[in-house]
Amino acid sequence: MLPYPSGADSLDKPALTTDQVTESLTLAEAIDKKFDAEDFSFAKESEQLRKNQFLDSLIIMGWLSRNLNQRGVDLIRNNQSEAAEKLFLAACKIYRGSPKGNVVAQANLRQANRESDYEFDEELDRLMSNDELLSLSRIDSTLKTYGPFNLTQACFQLGQNFARKTQIRQAYHELTWAAELATTLPDPVFYIADMFMSYELPEKAQLFIERLAIMHNTNPFTPEQQIKLIRLKTGLLLASSGPTEAEKYLVEKLKPHMNSLTGLHTMLAFHLDHDQNAKALGLLDTWLKDNPDDLNTLTDKLRRSD
Questions:
Q1: Whether the Cβ atoms of residue 44 and residue 96 lie closer than 8 Å to each other
Q2: Low-confidence ranges of the chain (pLDDT < 50)
Q3: How large is the greatest C-alpha to C-alpha distance in the chain, in angstroms?
Q4: Is the CB of residue 152 less than 8 Å from the CB of residue 169?
Q5: Rounded distance, CA 97 to CA 106, Å?
Q6: The domain at 182-296 falls in which architecture?
Q7: How far apart are CA 98 and CA 178, in angstroms?
Q8: For the chain, what are the domain ranges?
Q9: Residue 268 pLDDT
Q10: pLDDT value at position 5?
Protein backbone atom coordinates (compact mmCIF):
# COMPACT_ATOMS: atom_id res chain seq x y z
CA MET A 1 0.00 0.00 0.00
CA LEU A 2 1.13 3.54 -0.70
CA PRO A 3 0.60 6.41 1.77
CA TYR A 4 -1.27 9.48 0.62
CA PRO A 5 1.05 12.44 0.03
CA SER A 6 1.21 14.64 3.11
CA GLY A 7 -0.92 17.76 2.75
CA ALA A 8 -2.11 16.77 -0.72
CA ASP A 9 -5.34 18.29 -1.98
CA SER A 10 -6.18 15.33 -4.20
CA LEU A 11 -8.60 12.74 -2.91
CA ASP A 12 -7.49 10.24 -5.54
CA LYS A 13 -6.02 6.97 -4.32
CA PRO A 14 -2.31 6.68 -5.21
CA ALA A 15 -1.85 4.51 -8.29
CA LEU A 16 -0.10 1.18 -7.88
CA THR A 17 3.63 1.40 -8.50
CA THR A 18 5.26 -0.61 -11.27
CA ASP A 19 6.67 -2.97 -8.64
CA GLN A 20 3.24 -3.47 -7.05
CA VAL A 21 1.65 -4.24 -10.41
CA THR A 22 4.47 -6.66 -11.26
CA GLU A 23 4.12 -8.37 -7.88
CA SER A 24 0.38 -8.82 -8.35
CA LEU A 25 0.85 -10.05 -11.93
CA THR A 26 3.36 -12.63 -10.69
CA LEU A 27 0.98 -13.69 -7.92
CA ALA A 28 -1.86 -14.01 -10.41
CA GLU A 29 0.24 -16.24 -12.66
CA ALA A 30 1.37 -18.42 -9.75
CA ILE A 31 -2.15 -18.84 -8.42
CA ASP A 32 -3.48 -19.53 -11.90
CA LYS A 33 -0.96 -22.36 -12.31
CA LYS A 34 -1.74 -23.71 -8.84
CA PHE A 35 -5.45 -23.93 -9.51
CA ASP A 36 -5.04 -25.20 -13.05
CA ALA A 37 -2.80 -28.09 -12.03
CA GLU A 38 -3.96 -31.38 -13.50
CA ASP A 39 -4.97 -32.96 -10.20
CA PHE A 40 -6.40 -29.66 -8.91
CA SER A 41 -5.20 -30.84 -5.49
CA PHE A 42 -4.84 -27.46 -3.76
CA ALA A 43 -8.37 -26.35 -4.54
CA LYS A 44 -9.80 -29.78 -3.67
CA GLU A 45 -7.98 -29.85 -0.34
CA SER A 46 -9.10 -26.36 0.63
CA GLU A 47 -12.68 -27.19 -0.29
CA GLN A 48 -12.65 -30.39 1.76
CA LEU A 49 -11.18 -28.64 4.78
CA ARG A 50 -13.89 -26.02 4.65
CA LYS A 51 -16.62 -28.62 4.28
CA ASN A 52 -15.29 -30.43 7.34
CA GLN A 53 -15.35 -27.17 9.28
CA PHE A 54 -11.68 -27.06 10.25
CA LEU A 55 -11.68 -23.69 12.02
CA ASP A 56 -8.11 -22.77 11.10
CA SER A 57 -8.91 -23.49 7.48
CA LEU A 58 -12.10 -21.43 7.66
CA ILE A 59 -10.12 -18.44 8.89
CA ILE A 60 -7.16 -18.84 6.53
CA MET A 61 -9.15 -19.55 3.37
CA GLY A 62 -11.55 -16.73 4.12
CA TRP A 63 -8.65 -14.33 4.64
CA LEU A 64 -6.94 -15.49 1.45
CA SER A 65 -10.12 -15.20 -0.61
CA ARG A 66 -10.92 -11.73 0.68
CA ASN A 67 -7.41 -10.48 0.04
CA LEU A 68 -7.18 -12.02 -3.42
CA ASN A 69 -10.42 -10.25 -4.24
CA GLN A 70 -9.00 -6.99 -2.84
CA ARG A 71 -5.90 -7.32 -5.01
CA GLY A 72 -8.09 -8.04 -8.01
CA VAL A 73 -10.07 -4.85 -7.45
CA ASP A 74 -6.85 -2.84 -7.02
CA LEU A 75 -5.55 -4.26 -10.30
CA ILE A 76 -8.70 -3.65 -12.30
CA ARG A 77 -8.80 -0.08 -11.05
CA ASN A 78 -5.28 0.26 -12.41
CA ASN A 79 -6.18 -1.05 -15.88
CA GLN A 80 -4.87 -4.59 -15.31
CA SER A 81 -8.11 -6.45 -16.07
CA GLU A 82 -6.57 -9.72 -17.26
CA ALA A 83 -4.54 -10.21 -14.08
CA ALA A 84 -7.50 -9.05 -11.97
CA GLU A 85 -9.70 -11.72 -13.53
CA LYS A 86 -7.22 -14.43 -12.48
CA LEU A 87 -7.25 -13.19 -8.90
CA PHE A 88 -11.06 -12.99 -8.82
CA LEU A 89 -11.20 -16.56 -10.10
CA ALA A 90 -8.72 -17.74 -7.46
CA ALA A 91 -10.71 -15.93 -4.74
CA CYS A 92 -13.82 -17.79 -5.89
CA LYS A 93 -12.15 -21.20 -6.07
CA ILE A 94 -10.34 -21.04 -2.75
CA TYR A 95 -13.57 -20.16 -0.91
CA ARG A 96 -15.94 -22.44 -2.77
CA GLY A 97 -16.19 -24.96 0.07
CA SER A 98 -18.17 -22.45 2.13
CA PRO A 99 -21.92 -21.86 1.69
CA LYS A 100 -22.33 -19.80 -1.49
CA GLY A 101 -18.57 -19.12 -1.57
CA ASN A 102 -17.18 -15.59 -1.95
CA VAL A 103 -20.21 -14.03 -3.62
CA VAL A 104 -18.54 -10.64 -4.05
CA ALA A 105 -15.55 -12.17 -5.84
CA GLN A 106 -18.01 -14.13 -8.01
CA ALA A 107 -19.83 -10.93 -8.92
CA ASN A 108 -16.53 -9.19 -9.65
CA LEU A 109 -15.39 -12.11 -11.82
CA ARG A 110 -18.62 -12.07 -13.80
CA GLN A 111 -18.31 -8.31 -14.26
CA ALA A 112 -14.75 -8.77 -15.56
CA ASN A 113 -15.62 -11.68 -17.85
CA ARG A 114 -19.23 -12.42 -18.77
CA GLU A 115 -18.04 -15.55 -20.60
CA SER A 116 -16.30 -17.09 -17.58
CA ASP A 117 -16.99 -20.81 -17.21
CA TYR A 118 -16.92 -20.60 -13.39
CA GLU A 119 -20.05 -22.13 -11.86
CA PHE A 120 -21.55 -19.08 -10.16
CA ASP A 121 -23.86 -19.50 -7.19
CA GLU A 122 -27.47 -19.79 -8.35
CA GLU A 123 -28.53 -17.02 -5.94
CA LEU A 124 -25.86 -14.55 -7.08
CA ASP A 125 -28.29 -12.33 -9.02
CA ARG A 126 -30.67 -12.12 -6.09
CA LEU A 127 -27.89 -11.31 -3.64
CA MET A 128 -26.53 -8.57 -5.89
CA SER A 129 -29.90 -7.08 -6.81
CA ASN A 130 -31.24 -6.36 -3.33
CA ASP A 131 -29.85 -4.91 -0.12
CA GLU A 132 -29.06 -8.21 1.55
CA LEU A 133 -25.31 -7.58 1.38
CA LEU A 134 -25.29 -3.79 1.23
CA SER A 135 -27.84 -2.81 3.87
CA LEU A 136 -26.53 -0.41 6.51
CA SER A 137 -26.62 -3.19 9.09
CA ARG A 138 -24.54 -5.59 6.96
CA ILE A 139 -22.28 -3.51 4.77
CA ASP A 140 -19.25 -3.55 7.10
CA SER A 141 -19.59 -7.30 7.66
CA THR A 142 -19.84 -7.89 3.90
CA LEU A 143 -16.61 -6.00 3.20
CA LYS A 144 -14.74 -7.74 6.03
CA THR A 145 -15.91 -11.17 4.88
CA TYR A 146 -15.66 -10.94 1.09
CA GLY A 147 -13.63 -7.84 0.20
CA PRO A 148 -14.53 -4.91 -2.08
CA PHE A 149 -16.93 -4.70 -5.01
CA ASN A 150 -16.34 -3.83 -8.64
CA LEU A 151 -20.02 -3.27 -9.53
CA THR A 152 -21.61 0.04 -10.43
CA GLN A 153 -24.56 -0.01 -8.05
CA ALA A 154 -22.59 -1.57 -5.20
CA CYS A 155 -19.82 1.04 -5.47
CA PHE A 156 -22.47 3.76 -5.58
CA GLN A 157 -24.16 2.45 -2.44
CA LEU A 158 -20.82 2.07 -0.68
CA GLY A 159 -19.92 5.63 -1.58
CA GLN A 160 -23.21 6.88 -0.16
CA ASN A 161 -22.61 4.92 3.02
CA PHE A 162 -19.12 6.36 3.45
CA ALA A 163 -20.45 9.86 2.79
CA ARG A 164 -23.08 9.44 5.51
CA LYS A 165 -20.23 8.58 7.88
CA THR A 166 -18.33 11.67 6.62
CA GLN A 167 -15.55 9.38 5.36
CA ILE A 168 -15.12 11.62 2.36
CA ARG A 169 -12.00 10.08 0.83
CA GLN A 170 -13.49 6.58 0.83
CA ALA A 171 -16.78 7.94 -0.49
CA TYR A 172 -14.96 9.72 -3.30
CA HIS A 173 -13.11 6.54 -4.33
CA GLU A 174 -16.26 4.43 -4.56
CA LEU A 175 -18.42 7.08 -6.22
CA THR A 176 -15.85 7.99 -8.85
CA TRP A 177 -15.29 4.33 -9.67
CA ALA A 178 -19.04 3.78 -9.94
CA ALA A 179 -19.07 6.61 -12.46
CA GLU A 180 -16.20 4.99 -14.38
CA LEU A 181 -18.02 1.67 -14.56
CA ALA A 182 -21.19 3.18 -16.00
CA THR A 183 -20.51 6.30 -18.02
CA THR A 184 -24.19 6.71 -18.87
CA LEU A 185 -25.40 6.53 -15.25
CA PRO A 186 -25.36 10.08 -13.83
CA ASP A 187 -26.44 9.24 -10.26
CA PRO A 188 -22.93 8.73 -8.80
CA VAL A 189 -21.65 11.88 -10.51
CA PHE A 190 -24.59 13.92 -9.19
CA TYR A 191 -23.89 12.57 -5.73
CA ILE A 192 -20.20 13.51 -5.83
CA ALA A 193 -20.98 17.01 -7.12
CA ASP A 194 -23.65 17.52 -4.45
CA MET A 195 -21.28 16.23 -1.78
CA PHE A 196 -18.55 18.70 -2.68
CA MET A 197 -21.00 21.59 -2.95
CA SER A 198 -22.43 20.75 0.48
CA TYR A 199 -18.89 20.90 1.89
CA GLU A 200 -18.41 24.27 0.16
CA LEU A 201 -15.77 22.92 -2.22
CA PRO A 202 -17.03 24.22 -5.58
CA GLU A 203 -13.60 23.91 -7.20
CA LYS A 204 -13.69 20.15 -6.61
CA ALA A 205 -17.33 19.89 -7.68
CA GLN A 206 -16.72 21.71 -10.97
CA LEU A 207 -15.05 18.77 -12.74
CA PHE A 208 -18.04 16.54 -12.02
CA ILE A 209 -20.57 19.21 -12.96
CA GLU A 210 -18.78 19.62 -16.30
CA ARG A 211 -18.89 15.87 -16.74
CA LEU A 212 -22.64 15.88 -16.07
CA ALA A 213 -23.09 18.52 -18.77
CA ILE A 214 -21.25 16.29 -21.26
CA MET A 215 -23.38 13.30 -20.25
CA HIS A 216 -26.53 15.38 -20.74
CA ASN A 217 -25.41 16.51 -24.20
CA THR A 218 -24.72 12.88 -25.15
CA ASN A 219 -27.88 11.41 -23.66
CA PRO A 220 -30.42 14.06 -22.55
CA PHE A 221 -31.37 13.93 -18.88
CA THR A 222 -34.87 13.71 -17.51
CA PRO A 223 -36.46 17.09 -16.59
CA GLU A 224 -35.69 16.52 -12.89
CA GLN A 225 -32.06 15.69 -13.66
CA GLN A 226 -31.83 18.80 -15.83
CA ILE A 227 -33.05 20.90 -12.91
CA LYS A 228 -30.47 19.29 -10.61
CA LEU A 229 -27.74 20.17 -13.11
CA ILE A 230 -29.03 23.77 -13.34
CA ARG A 231 -28.98 24.01 -9.54
CA LEU A 232 -25.39 22.76 -9.40
CA LYS A 233 -24.24 25.17 -12.11
CA THR A 234 -25.96 27.97 -10.21
CA GLY A 235 -23.95 27.00 -7.14
CA LEU A 236 -20.72 27.35 -9.11
CA LEU A 237 -21.75 30.74 -10.40
CA LEU A 238 -22.77 31.82 -6.91
CA ALA A 239 -19.28 30.97 -5.63
CA SER A 240 -17.46 32.70 -8.49
CA SER A 241 -19.66 35.72 -9.30
CA GLY A 242 -22.08 36.26 -6.42
CA PRO A 243 -25.87 36.03 -5.96
CA THR A 244 -26.92 38.58 -8.58
CA GLU A 245 -25.34 36.72 -11.51
CA ALA A 246 -26.37 33.37 -10.06
CA GLU A 247 -29.99 34.48 -9.79
CA LYS A 248 -30.04 35.75 -13.39
CA TYR A 249 -28.71 32.42 -14.60
CA LEU A 250 -31.15 30.40 -12.50
CA VAL A 251 -34.21 32.41 -13.57
CA GLU A 252 -33.29 32.06 -17.24
CA LYS A 253 -32.47 28.36 -17.16
CA LEU A 254 -35.51 27.41 -15.08
CA LYS A 255 -38.01 29.06 -17.44
CA PRO A 256 -38.84 25.79 -19.25
CA HIS A 257 -39.29 24.05 -15.89
CA MET A 258 -41.39 26.49 -13.89
CA ASN A 259 -44.55 24.50 -14.49
CA SER A 260 -43.12 21.70 -12.33
CA LEU A 261 -42.93 21.49 -8.54
CA THR A 262 -39.21 20.70 -8.76
CA GLY A 263 -38.60 23.88 -10.73
CA LEU A 264 -40.72 25.90 -8.30
CA HIS A 265 -38.94 24.49 -5.25
CA THR A 266 -35.50 25.11 -6.76
CA MET A 267 -36.26 28.77 -7.45
CA LEU A 268 -38.02 29.12 -4.11
CA ALA A 269 -35.05 27.68 -2.23
CA PHE A 270 -32.70 30.21 -3.86
CA HIS A 271 -34.92 33.14 -2.83
CA LEU A 272 -35.22 31.89 0.75
CA ASP A 273 -31.50 31.13 1.05
CA HIS A 274 -30.80 34.76 0.16
CA ASP A 275 -33.50 36.37 2.34
CA GLN A 276 -35.59 37.31 -0.70
CA ASN A 277 -38.90 36.70 1.06
CA ALA A 278 -40.91 39.07 -1.11
CA LYS A 279 -39.75 37.27 -4.25
CA ALA A 280 -40.53 33.93 -2.64
CA LEU A 281 -44.09 34.97 -1.81
CA GLY A 282 -44.55 36.43 -5.29
CA LEU A 283 -43.44 33.13 -6.77
CA LEU A 284 -45.94 31.25 -4.61
CA ASP A 285 -48.73 33.65 -5.64
CA THR A 286 -48.01 33.07 -9.32
CA TRP A 287 -47.99 29.31 -8.82
CA LEU A 288 -51.29 29.34 -6.93
CA LYS A 289 -53.00 31.36 -9.65
CA ASP A 290 -52.21 28.54 -12.08
CA ASN A 291 -52.65 25.76 -9.53
CA PRO A 292 -55.41 26.87 -7.11
CA ASP A 293 -55.98 23.33 -5.82
CA ASP A 294 -52.37 22.84 -4.73
CA LEU A 295 -53.05 22.70 -1.00
CA ASN A 296 -49.45 21.93 -0.03
CA THR A 297 -48.14 25.08 -1.70
CA LEU A 298 -51.01 27.12 -0.24
CA THR A 299 -50.14 25.85 3.23
CA ASP A 300 -46.50 26.72 2.60
CA LYS A 301 -47.46 30.25 1.62
CA LEU A 302 -49.59 30.73 4.72
CA ARG A 303 -46.76 29.52 6.92
CA ARG A 304 -44.26 31.89 5.30
CA SER A 305 -46.67 34.82 5.56
CA ASP A 306 -46.90 34.53 9.36
A1: no
A2: 1-8, 38-40
A3: 82
A4: no
A5: 14
A6: Alpha Horseshoe (1.25)
A7: 29
A8: 19-118, 182-296
A9: 92
A10: 47
